[in-house]
Design a protein that fits this description.
The protein is of the alpha/beta class. The chain is built from ten helices and seven strands. The protein folds into two domains: 4-49; 65-254, Carbonic anhydrase (Beta-carbonic Anhydrase, Chain A, 3-Layer(aba) Sandwich). It has helices at residues 4-31, 35-53, 71-87, 97-102, 124-127, 147-160, 174-181, 193-203, 207-225, 227-234, and strands spanning 57-59, 62-64, 112-116, 135-139, 164-170, 239-245, 252-254.
Length: 256
């Protein structure tokens, strides 16, 4: 049977071993992140990844807007988005809406602007596979230029930094068709005719040809009648193009 002296020695040795084990655990803990720290790092990485998917980059803590695209790249981004739309492989729905909303509450930085017809069959953002804050859209039946439309697009280019303006007509446009037919219509609908008539005079009674001619004429008017837009185009900071949207296939063709 062990005496009291031996028991005290065994107890002291056990205490020293436990102290050494605790010290080793503390050392290991200081070298590796805690579970909470690991989760924080993982979540930070996830948020960064979602922001990248949403089209928002980070550099030195600052958001890099899509408006840093060149005019040609902005047009190409729209073309690429339309190809995704045609193939049914949209990715705008994969973007985190919460992040997009959060980053567009206090400001907007669209990379392109579109002057489109008001036709409900022409959902601009969907056609180009874009989401919140990406496209500055102006709409009027017949997609023609007015002082108000010019002012809006000038604001988009000079203040918001859009790099491309697309004037887009579409197949089966009722406004162009009504102008061709020149029938008596109720209310103020006929007020549209005077803006579209130059295209009808140029292209004749063919609806598709007149619609394409109208888009080209309106794009030219934007380049020529707005000193703000004209100057940006001359400085290669902005591109203005005409386009035609096919309702059946879903494709957008750049006309000039």
């Amino acid at each position: 049977m062990a005496n009291s002296s031996e028991l005290r020695n065994d107890t002291s040795a056990q205490d020293r071993n436990e102290e050494r084990s605790l010290g080793e655990i503390a050392l290991v803990s200081s070298q590796y992140p805690s579970r909470r720290s690991f989760l924080q790092m993982a979540l930070t990485g996830t948020v960064t990844g979602l922001a990248t998917v949403a089209g928002i980059g980070f550099s030195g803590g600052q958001v890099l807007a899509q408006s840093q695209l060149t005019p040609d790249a902005a047009v190409q981004e729209l073309i690429d988005g339309n190809r995704r739309f045609m193939s049914g492989r949209l990715n705008s729905f994969d973007q985190d809406l919460a992040i997009l909303k959060q980053n567009t509450v206090d400001k907007q930085e669209p990379f392109a602007a579109v002057l489109s017809c008001a036709d409900s069959r022409v959902p601009v953002e969907l056609i180009f596979d874009q989401s919140i804050g990406h496209i500055f859209v102006t709409r009027v039946a017949g997609n023609f230029v007015t002082p108000e439309i010019i002012a809006s697009l000038e604001y988009g280019a000079a203040v918001l930094g859009t790099k491309a303006i697309v004037v887009m007509g579409h197949a089966g446009c009722g406004a162009v068709k009504a102008t061709i037919q020149a029938k008596t219509v109720p209310g103020q609908i006929s007020a549209l005719y005077q803006h579209i008539q130059p295209a009808v005079d140029q292209a004749g009674a063919n609806l598709e040809a007149a619609t394409k001619a109208n888009a080209k004429i309106q794009a030219a008017l934007l380049r020529e009648s707005s000193t703000v837009i004209a100057d940006l185009v001359k400085e290669n900071k902005l591109k203005v193009v005409a386009a035609y949207y096919d309702l059946t296939g879903g494709g957008v063709n750049i006309l000039d």
